[in-house]
Design a protein that fits this description.
globular, alpha/beta, single chain, 729 residues, 13% strand, six-stranded parallel sheet, 24 helices
Length: 729
Amino acid sequence: MPRRRRLDTGTPWVELRTTAADWRAADPALLVTMLGQLHLIRAFEESVLDLAAQGLVHGPAHSSIGQEGGAVGSIVTLRSSDAVNGSHRGHHQFLAKAIAHVSDGGLALDALVTADLRALLQRTLAEILGLAEGFSGGRGGSMHLQWLEAGALGTNAIVGGGAPLATGNAWAQKHAGTTDVSINYFGDGASQIGSVLESMNLAATWRLPVMYFIENNLYAVSTHASEASADPRFSIRAQGFSIPAWRVDGMDPLAVHLATQEALARMRAGEGPAVIEAEVYRFFHQNGPYPGSAFGYRTKQEETEWRSRDPLEKTARELTALGVASPAEIEGVREQAVSAMADVVSALIEDDPDSAGRSRIRPALWPDPAHVDRGIRGDESELARLVAAEPAVHAGEWREVKFVDAVAETMNRRMSEDPRIIVLGEDVHRLNGGTNGATKGLAKAFGPDRIIGTPISENGFFGLAGGIALDGRFRPVVEFMYPDFMWVAADQVFNQVGKARHMFGDNNRVPLVLRTKVAMGSGYGSQHLMDPAGIFATSVGWRIVAASSAADYVGLMNAALALDDPVLVIEHVDLYGTADRVPEGDLDYVIPPRSAAIRRAGEEVTVLTYLSMVGHSLEAVNQTGIDAEVIDLRWLDRASLDWDTVGESIRKTNNVLIVEQGSQGPSYGAWLSDEIQRRFFDWLDQPVQRVTGGEASPSISKVLERAAIARTEEVVRGLERVRTEWGGR
């Protein structure tokens, strides 16, 4: 028989419940403040549900009524410089943090609502209603509440989506030398989400001051927690990552507070993350003013039992028993909160003159529709202090270099000049420069705090980098070993980082660079070598650069690292080993947006291309004798593309051929051809022609891979097709 030994993680996992002695020992001022916050949040949420019932809340109204105890108990003593982010059901989390900030941590029973506090309530409700005076100008609404001044990083409509961002914020807090902490709030459903578990692993491995706060309200929309997990005590997840965890009664704000204080002591001391699971209950359905029993997935008996544990009533009973507040004083708190919300509502809502008995939002409060696209990205003013230069006209000395060495040298130069820059990615700190040598020498020069090798968890570490960028004190550069891995991290890449600036009303800067390489022709198959340009070009918020030479790479990467927007930097393995050159000197010049380069002037057709296909296009032109104008786009996104140069060429040649290497489905040229035909239709003698790979992603087979991608031969055929079509007209 084999010998067996029971294993133990050695990591604490405790259940915490308060006693009468805990309530007696609590600071009366703390208890009063918790009661005041609970009533303010409850009155606020009741107003939201009332407005939703009148059809005045556009979109969902995810009420937190019943769950207030978890947010108030955990946030009430946080500093303004501590940070929180939360879920789609996050009004209580946001309000608890904002109220603590505005009230400087304390509330008075007899003067609950100050002018500043009333303004906070009004501005929050305005945001939920989509109005201009909201914190994000109405763009965030109910599910995306942000107030950076108060440490409210932004609630999140994607289940589990905020965990990597909070983890990144905690990384920034730690490496900025503070004792501040971050708390990420999510529900029972997110406890099964990969990004949450990846974040826990990163936080534990790097000992980051972040708490994962699980509001276990037992239900997704209608699916019970026991149907989603074999063990619905979701704090057990912490055991797998050696993170201490507490399980508490979330209907008892003091129990939550005591568990949080224990966790905060650990986090502020540099001992790493914590998990708290609070058992709570939403009194209403997933969305709107009706109970869950109205939809058949909960019983009225269950709802009645949980309502008897209402955190407001629990706190009131304890304060009355302790003599801290009389029943009349407690009723006065309720009246003040309700009265304040009535005033707030009346400031935003009026009788509808066109419909008797109905109300409407005051028309003057809506945002200006002309601002719909403002704030998608910055104004590029950060480039104004830098020297723009065109390598093609450099008159000085040149230095021979391999393309991939220019990548590493550029990063070395920028990291030497800017201590905010950090690099994250799989193996970037090993192998003398990662898997391709693109980070050669950086680990030795800058050490493990700035060249950070990550676990294989793209969604987690990219989202962490997003949180670091949004914090603003650091400038992360993330390497995805292959572009296809962006699909693993798609939520953080597109829903979070790409949308953050616009979604939150341009409150944030997002200084982040994502490096990756096209690997077509390397034999790595369908899941490792795509061209990501087309996907990013059709995704909001991203800038895109693609260099065809080492000298261009220097200027483009310098610009990318100066911009306060997320920038995708695409490289190509075909270029890495090529002998190239860069201007002799310190390599500080930039190639700003809207700087396409004409690689060959011509009169018959405009060839638009990028990366290694610039060289293939020039070869093809030489072989055909067609007088083509070859334009290296360099900047590929809508806002940064050089439409002036492209348009001038099209008006001259009247024919366009877009050349790219990858497959047709995620093609960059599909988007670009549509844009060109909309902008320059009157100057086109024929439809825009395209050279692409095949429909399918390239296969492993050398023969099938070659058949699936475009190179010089395919460009030759494309040029001849343009000439045939043009000649036929």
